[in-house]
Amino acid sequence: MSDDEHPDTTEPAGVRLAREIRRRRTQAGLSQPQLAQKIGYTRQYVSLAERADHNLPSMEIVKAIDRALDAEGALVTLREESKSEQERLRRESTPQITANSVGYPPEQVRPRRYCLPRSRWTSIPGFWRMP
């Protein structure tokens, strides 16, 4: 069996999705323009779906490709895994900013009620002013 039939599960799911779309398309004997015509999208969309260095393709195009290539939901599942992995990585890499993480003592941190310039704060009844 070739490496194509046993994908490397240590690769990001988005990379596996792009490779699987290309593998299934070539296995079906279709060019990008032929697949695009079959699913009702442009060749550029198909090309982007096969490129791992771009954003994830939309769920709609993945579903269309999945149906056209008789993947029986395999591509949709990979797309869902890719999206979950992407969201998890974003959560892990985004620092959680709190009042204390930016150096303000808790007693000086007050929530803003409105997104107004400071000069207009005093014109709002009951609104306090920072010292």
TrEMBL record:
| Bias kind Basic and acidic residues: ranges | 80-93
Q: What positions does the domain HTH cro/C1-type occupy?
A: 21-76
Which residue stretches belong to region Disordered? 80-109
The name this protein goes by in its record: HTH cro/C1-type domain-containing protein
